Amino acid sequence: MLKLKNVSKYYYQAGVIAEGFSKVNLELHLGEFVVITGESGSGKSTLLNVLSGLDSYEDGEMYINGEETSHYTEEDYLNYRRRYVSNIFQNFNLVNSYTVYQNIELAMLMNGKKKKEIKKYVNELIEKVGLKKYRNTKASKLSGGQKQRVAIARALANDTPIIVADEPTGALDSEAAKNILKILHDISKNKLVIIVTHQKEDVEKYATRLIKMHDGKILENKLVEKINLDKDLVSKEVDSIKLGSKLRLGIRNAFNIPIKFILMFVIFMLITVTLITNYASLKMAENEELGNAYNNFFNDTDNRRIILTKKDKTSFTEEDYNNINNLDNILFLTKYDLLNDIELFLESDNLYLNGNIKINTYKNVDVGNIPLNDNEVIVKGSKENWYLSNNLDTILQNEFILESDLRMSIKIVGVIYDNSFTDYDLEFYVSENLSNKLLKEEIRNKSDAIFKLDNNYVYSSYGSPVTILESDKLSNGEIYISDDLSGYCENYNCLNKEVNLKIKNIFYEEELNGKIVKVLTKENALKLVNRKYEELYNTIYISSEEYNKLFLKESYQSSVYVKEIKDLNKTGEELKNLDLEILKIKDAKHNDAEMVTQIFKIFKLILIVILVVVLFFISYFIMKIIYKSRNSYYTTIRTLGGTKRVCVSILMYELINLSMFTYLIFLLFINLIKYQIIHNEYFNELIKYISIREYVIVYIILLLLSILMAYRYGRKIFKKSIIKTYGERI
Ligand code: ADP
Ligand code: MG
Fold this sequence. Notes:
By secondary structure, this protein is of the alpha/beta class. Residues 11, 13, 18, 20, 38, 40-46, 727 line the site of adenosine-5'-diphosphate.
């Protein structure tokens, strides 16, 4: 039973009170087919809205099954509507982007039914309203009469005891109108149908009660057919929408309006690309700064380099090298780390070249040939390098002298161009043999030596007291000395005297004893050691085997170079797990402009943060505009019993779907670039600086935007009543 006692409804608009209807008394029951007529503005719609709980009233009392409703809150009304009322609107209020089936199904999903369970019933309803042929047609493609039939089917699917129809035939031609009224009548048994219409003649034959309104009052309330008026309204069973349904609607809504989908795709993509590219270029700039930094101790300041020693200070074994090489991100490993910091100095009459040393593994060169012996090397550098462009021929023809105790002559036989080099950096690729010789020299130079000749200590005013060189003419234990050292021996005669040598460096200590077999003089120097006497000062020669034993020990310090600079830290951690001490070369660098760089970095970081915030809000407002057009959808959801939470979660799933889809496309794009299927230099360079963490952070920003948007939007549409939102739309 639905009863109005002296109920009045007023509208307040711009300080003026307008009367919807006043002092209406009415009692309606299950089983009635109530027809309301009256001229325009007489208050029919207002009455229907109050009866169906779409609008509140100001005065009097409305009873639902005897229960007072004047204290009802929004939520109480929502509950009332869910249990008792379906509306059929003059302008249908279908979801235009849904098919006939989906529109009808929606009402049942909103009531917690499962998609599969209701399929048969929905199809029956479609048949009942004669739309079998249009089952999969979008509502927007239907004629007015067809739309209204969908609306009726939806009201039936909702299965509430009260069906309220406000001018359901107003927009239809008379044939279609008759049809609709008939269907309404057919379904009215055991329900309370309240209908406002101008089609008086057509509807009178069905009516059990006729109400005529005029100027906000009931002028006539005529019971046409006596029916059992004792029946109470029976609430339908209500359940809230299932999570699966919400997810499904979210997915459907994400894609079923192409223009909205495209706009949202563009927004999400814009945010993603802007964030990723900005972050990457910040990283790139940071890296370049480091590239410009220099270091006094290490010559090779490549940021990809990590220097390794073992935690227990022992030397590296083959097993250690295998373990290191088995890590993912290793570009190459230099067993003797010192090699990385030796520079090769080449000198000829008019040219002076220097650069880092690498062991050659190249089988091809850009210009010239690959080296065939220890005296031949490859040089690598930028095409813009002054030596490698203007002076290429000279370089390839010249004989160079290696600046070293080796006094070798060197020929550059091949050139490799690499434009990642600066215009002044060069790199030399040498034979392993030559690299070993240079390495020994380097270790020798970095070692302290205590030298005793004929039991006397030999001192020097700088560095090591003697220069130790190797000669393959000597056997172990045999020694040559330059004759300037003779003063340390008794009677200036060093021949056959004992020599004791202790070598000490940061890694090890070694000792050597020997006997002097020759003193190098003006006469014999060239013949014995192939060197001018004038060059021999404080020099001793030992056998090659002993020289190797002193200076080419197992390696105590190695370096790896990583492939992906973005994973440098990860690789560092993995190396630590192998019981290694690590030093990332980028951490060992000094930068003269450190202060300025730091400020610059902070400044850029602030800019990025501002960018993110601005972008976030711009996107938010554009999305808000786009979603304004969705008001009718969510109002429809509301009329079907959707709470704020339901609306928010459907929208949230929609936005999450859109963002996920966009992001997957973005990741696909990135991978196509990464695997060179799409060629794009710019992105290819940028993505080197982006790791999983950054990808995750960017997606989290998209997610946050989606969630915020859904909550704000949900709050906004629920600020207004259903009637108001509809009013704005019509
Ligand atoms: P009907 O449906 O019979 O044409 P309505 O119920 O729409 O009549 O309107 C009844 C009266 O209430 C009219 O005078 C109308 O101007 C007024 N009215 C209806 N809706 C509003 C509203 N949203 N704001 C102010 N006045 C309204
Ligand atoms: Mg009206």
